[in-house]
Sequence to fold (554 residues):
Amino acid sequence: MDDRQINLDTQATIVNIPLDRPTDAFILQVDHSFWPIQIPAEIPNVDDFMSLATSYLPTNSHFPVNLYTATATNLIDLKSSFSVADPTQCYIEKPNHKIEKIVTADSISLLGTDVVGCLSAPLPFVPTGSLISLSFIYSSPTLTPANGNISDKDFGSSEIPQPLEPRSEPKPAQIFANSTGKFQQVNLILEALDTKAVQEIVYQDIKVSVHQQLFSSTGQIKDIPGKEIVVDDKTDKLQISLPITDTAFDIRQIPESNGLFPENRNCDQYDQGKTVKLISEAGFLYQSQNAIECDYLNLRHLPHSLNYLLSFNVDFQKGLPLTVCLENQSTYRCDIHERLIKTNVFQSLIQPIANPDEPTGYTLHLFNQSIGNRITTNLLRSITIRPVPLNFLKSISISPPTTNNSEPTTNNQELSSAHPSEFLYTVTIPHPKNENQQPITSLNLHQTKSPYWQAVQVSAKDLKLPAWLLTTKIFFNYFKLTKLTHNDSNFWYNSWLVPTQVTNNSEPTTLTLIYLPQYLEFIGLAIFPLAFLFVIANLVIKLKQSIPKIKKKS
Fold:
């Protein structure tokens, strides 16, 4: 703050690992992450800590800390099992889609189009507490991403998948899994979903080994205590710096190294216009005309217990900016769905939803949308994804300095809110209890920013109405009601200015936050019964008109 460092109180968690035999190489497991560790020869002479690995860990919950031998106690040869096995569809079933297998003396190739295929080989019994290691070298002439795991019969795995970038040149990979003491199998996976041409992934030098456990315990990271920062009138800069980490959850996509979809694809179901995707040193060039050029990045390994900061280096050139959707692979909904702004600087979005009870996995979708013959062109230079400690940031509070008065001057008004529907919030701001209580000047909705969220002032009586009746009343009186002004041009969330004449009333201020596009859905649903009634009424009128004519003829 103003070039002054504000330190936070942290407490280290130390786990002592007694070893009854000397070793300088082992495999370390902390939570769901594994690292082969080689201890430097000079480590016994170091009195301080030495950094070995970086990981994100949950706070206030226990996680496993295990140590295994680096030398395998058992080697398992699965070459003959893979040679006789037939590849099958896994995770997603598509009728009339096949996976082909080519086996040579030193490699196994899987080929297919618009399919996810698995080539599986069963493992012999491995005692509980042991660690299973799967290593291989992979490459793909079609730049198809590699994937492999150790699972049960239903392809379910308790371990977090690893991000393996598509490579045309051979690259080694190693995957670990704890033994369950039950049936387990090794899966080599072809990820060719949504592709139009034949995709190929090549696996070589496949090795499976078992490692003995040396030590097992649990650890726990304690929360960093909340921090209150006192800011006076002279303070003009407050900056929070977070360390740049390099973990499996830190992702950077550039033209030279990326896991984006390898093909040009139009995902517009109604318009079959033109789409272009070109990859060069400058970046990924997307162009559409009367179509939607779609690209996506599979983030199957990202856990839902963390929040993420997504940064895009995009040059907007023509038409509409890129639209971004971060699809939750558990709910199949977009946790983030935003259209980027028309600019040529870095833009960032925060994924604010964290649910540790959900399985891992997101899919990042990019849409280059063109309406009619208007061409849309955007140049994506890079994508960066990093976990962000959102709960920690929310624990930092800012307050003005206290005065010599007996009563504090930093007490804010406390508002109460309810969330009766996905598209509706209700807010009550009470009248200040005393002159020293600081009134609320802004109202914030901490979810993805959208100009279609509106803050509307209603009466306290209206706030007691059922949600459907309140929504209907707002619809018919919308243009008569007082609406707060948006103040979120520099924020990732929705924010509104609360005028002092609103909060200084003797009565509590009652507001609703409503998402206006929801009315379009209601109108669409209302059209169906109204159209049905119109058709029935039309038939009844025609029937009545035809009865006199029939009587005259008779």
